Protein: Glyoxylate reductase
Organism: Xanthobacter autotrophicus
Amino acid sequence: MVRRKPLVVVTRKLPDSVETRMRELFDAQLNLDDVPMDQAALVEAVRTADVLVPTLTDRIDSAVLSQAGENLRLIASFSNGVDHIDVASALNRGITVTNTPGVLTEDTADMTMALILAVPRRLAEGAQAVIADKDEWLGWSPTWMLGRRIWGKRLGIIGMGRIGQAVARRAKAFGLQIHYHNRRRLPTGIEEMLDATYWDSLDQMLARMDIVSINCPHTPATYHLLSARRLKLLKPEAYVVNTARGEVIDENALTRQLEAGELAGAGLDVFEHEPAVNPKLIRLAKQGKVVLLPHLGSATLEGRVDMGEKVIVNIKTFMDGHRPPDRVLPAML
Ligand code: DGY
């Protein structure tokens, strides 16, 4: 008897090499136009597929999952974060969920560092001034476009997992003093290597930092972790950088504080209602108070191919009857 290949529905366009390998291994239904699927299309996908490969732009909630067909046994997400999936519902239905951890650590840490530099050193404004139509740049001047030095400043990292630690390694080399808040304290050896100071009280850490970087996942426990109250604890000269998930910061409160001059600036690669961006943030970006990026943290060809490879390994291992390496477990949520 010929075993049929599993029907793998992929919701977005993936790098060519990943799609080709998927076609070789599976009965892969690809989305060559890259048009995001609406909820009806997602429902159709979960009804028919053996494996669903969603990305962070697909909302796989309990309503979608309630329509899942009997064949759907695996959701192999092309993403590190899994906040777009109701994982508890999936697990209750006996559907395994996997993600792609580890392979986007360095790229995301690079982008975090880029924002840590970009906002205090006014990179976006400077780049714009050079190419502006009007004569905005008249040559070097002792007092024009002064930013703030980052060497010697205190960086508070919220979430000291793989990405947080990769940010800390980079930031240490730039002369920043590393502080962090995490659910669990790091082993002493890692703390010593990073010269990192642990704060079990996030409130106490925030009040003392010059730059705060969000590097934790979005879970029910971290939703609005930087709430209006906590944002008020920051010094008016402080900067906030977020390459994790928009939902971790109360974006309206952040915007109000930036408008009121109660914070020096922010660098945001993610937004609370992505892809929608608060028009007030766009106004602040035009005034040079914030740098906004379109969720580019993991956007390297190498990173995206590695993510695809992980998805394939997870599917193949699962289909061969083994535990896939990147299972999302309830304890991680
Ligand atoms: C992820 O995979 O969760 C990242 O946010 C993509 O950049």
Summary: Residues 7-101+301-332 form a domain with the Rossmann fold fold (CATH 3.40.50.720). The chain has a mean pLDDT of 97.
